[in-house]
Amino acid sequence: MLRQSIRRSIEGRMAAFPRDMAAHGRFTPDMVRTFAELGFLGIRLDERWGGAAMSLRAYCLVQEELSRLSPILSLMVSSTSGLAPMAIQRHGTAEQQRRYLPQLCSGQSRTCFALTEPEAGSDAAAMTTTAHRVSGGWQLNGIKHFITLADDAQLMMVMSITDRAKRARGGVSAFLVEIPTPGVSVSRVDRTIGSAAWTLGEITLNEVFVADSQVLGDIGKGFSYAMASLDEGRLNVASICLGAARWLLEASAAHATSRVTFGAPLASRQAIQWMLADSATEIAATEGLIQAALEAIEAGGSAGALASMAKLYASEMAFRVADRAVQIHGAAGVLDSSPIGAMFRDLRLFRIGEGASEIQRMLIARSVLEQVPN
Fold first, then answer.
1. In whole angstroms, what is the distance from residue 284 CA to residue 278 CA?
2. Which residues contact 247 (CB under 8 A, 6 or more apart)?
3. Measured between alpha carbons, how far is 238 from 232 in angstroms, rounded to an integer?
4. CA 201, CA 111: separation in Å to the nearest integer?
5. Do residues 41 and 107 make contact, with C-beta atoms less than 8 angstroms apart?
6. What 3-state class would DSSP assign to 111?
7. Contact assessment for residue 111 and residue 41, using Cβ atoms and an 8 Å cutoff
8. pLDDT at residue 162 greater than cutoff 90
9. Cα–Cα distance measured from residue 175 to residue 138, given in angstroms and rounded to the nearest whole number
10. Beta-carbon count within 10 A of 237 CB
């Protein structure tokens, strides 16, 4: 019932969004308003802030359904219900929650998570952005790099070193920095190979004063807050990839059935059938990994390696499904205006975000080796 309700809302009100994003290169105010009216903003935040208080499972379902239309639509939901918003709900002061969470639910504000730096990507502990104690607060200096939707955010969760000796082991703190704030500039905005609406920004922090009231949670706990949300972020990506792959398979099967070559439908060719069979099998396997990880979290534990497996397999699976879809559609699949081609380009990005495939394999292997008896 929930899935069908979500799908009707998306198909009824958002069908033109992929075209609008391509035309404008961003999420337009009308699009944000529609997200808010449909209740897709702040969906994991408490009802007292205007959210829907959805479970992680329901959140993943929303992201899956949105991604049938375009994986990029998921970014709007993540910016109001992802890592930074949930960190504010879990660790923020009452004043921080009152100030920011209602704005996220209404569409007045979006967040970005400023962790990555030019020399600190997968190795996030190598960050160099610092926060020094000054009268009444902190002074931040550094550069954040490849920050998703930095040019569209009104609030940043900035990770900075507050103790060089401890670094990732209790020396990184989280700060809530509003945009605009003196000393903060989005110094560069890059477009990706995917949708024009998926931007990556470079943020320069030059002697930025942040009051004590803008520290998120405890000093020295910032890195642990981010790491504690990794399972959720990885399952979010896995669900996005699953939704996109489902749509691609449906589109491929429909095209193979209707397209006639040499007097027979494409679907009658064994080569095409095997592509469809491989895609269907991999989609089912992905769903099983996501469900297993969700069950582990719902049982009160951590998904751990299961979340890494789901993210790894889903992101690589979706790109394989997209590649097969392009092949099945032929020339129609490589047109710039083709939704198949757009999915192909968009899905490539998810093998990098939320931890690259190589990092996920490293974490999975570590988990396997830890189970070897001494």
1. 10
2. 67, 68, 69, 343
3. 10
4. 13
5. yes
6. strand
7. no
8. yes
9. 9
10. 27
Which letter, b or e, does each residue of 248-286 get, where b requires 16 or more Cβ atoms within 10 Å of its Cβ?
bbebbbebbeeeeeeeeebbeeeebeebbeebeebbeeb
**What integer pLDDT is reported at residue 8 of this predicted model?**
94
164 pLDDT higher than 80: yes
Residues in the chain: 374
Q: Answer for the pair 340, 332: CB distance below 8 angstroms, yes or no.
A: yes
In the chain, the percentage of residues whose pLDDT exceeds 70 is 100
The beta strands (E) that lie in 129-198 are given as 130-134, 137-148, 155-161, 172-178, 184-191
Q: Which residues are identified as catalytic?
A: 354
In whole angstroms, give the CA distance from residue 135 to residue 133. 7
Amino acid in position 332: A
- 154 — phi, psi (to 5°)? -110, -10
d(CA 7, CA 359): 33
If you average pLDDT over residues 358-371, what whole number do you get? 96
Phi, psi of 269 (to 5 degrees): -85, 130
Question: How high is the mean pLDDT of the chain?
Answer: 95
Token couple for 37: 């009216």
Whose CA is closest to 307, among 223, 373, 372, 237?
237
Is the pLDDT at 267 greater than 90? The verdict is yes
Q: Which two tokens stand for residue 334?
A: 């490589």
Provide the whole-model pTM.
0.95
Amino acid at 209: F
Structure-derived torsion over alpha carbons of residues 312, 315, 316, 322, reported in degrees to the nearest 10: 170
Residue 120 pLDDT = 85
| Three-class SS state of 197 | coil
Give yes or no for residue 365 having a pLDDT over 90: yes
Q: Is 372 helix (H, G, I), strand (E, B) or coil?
A: coil
- In the block, tokens 């479970």 appear at 55
pLDDT tens profile 275-289: 999 999 999 999 999
Estimate the crossing angle of helix 230-258 against helix 83-91, to 10 degrees.
150
Distances (CA, A) of 13 to 17, 37, 128, 313: 9, 10, 44, 31
